[in-house]
Specification:
The protein is an all-beta fold and about 70 residues long. Helix content is about 0%, strand content about 20%. It has no helices and five strands. Strands 1-4-5 form a three-stranded antiparallel β-sheet, with no helix packed on it. It has a two-stranded antiparallel ribbon with strand order 2-3. Strand 2 and strand 3 form a beta hairpin. It is globular and about 45 Å long.
Length: about 70
């Protein structure tokens, strides 16, 4: 699950098996990444619950920096 930082709701993003055994991957669309950042939550045990109800310690943030344009 992911959301633009500060949004109330998450978007579901299924993960695909990676090349290495035991790995998985997913790509957050670039159009959903803003300078405010992205919050994400990984659900690996198959139990479904609403991430906004998850403890805050389970939600992670990715900071985003704009490239210098000159």
């Amino acid at each position: 699950f992911y959301r633009q930082h500060g949004d109330a709701s998450y978007t579901t993003l299924p993960m695909q098996r990676g090349v290495e055994p035991g790995t998985y991957k997913a790509t957050i669309p670039g159009s959903d990444v803003t300078p405010d950042g992205v919050d994400y939550y990984l659900n690996v045990d198959g139990k479904v619950f609403d991430p906004p109800q998850a403890p805050a310690a389970l939600t992670h943030a990715i900071a985003v920096a704009r490239p210098e344009v000159g």
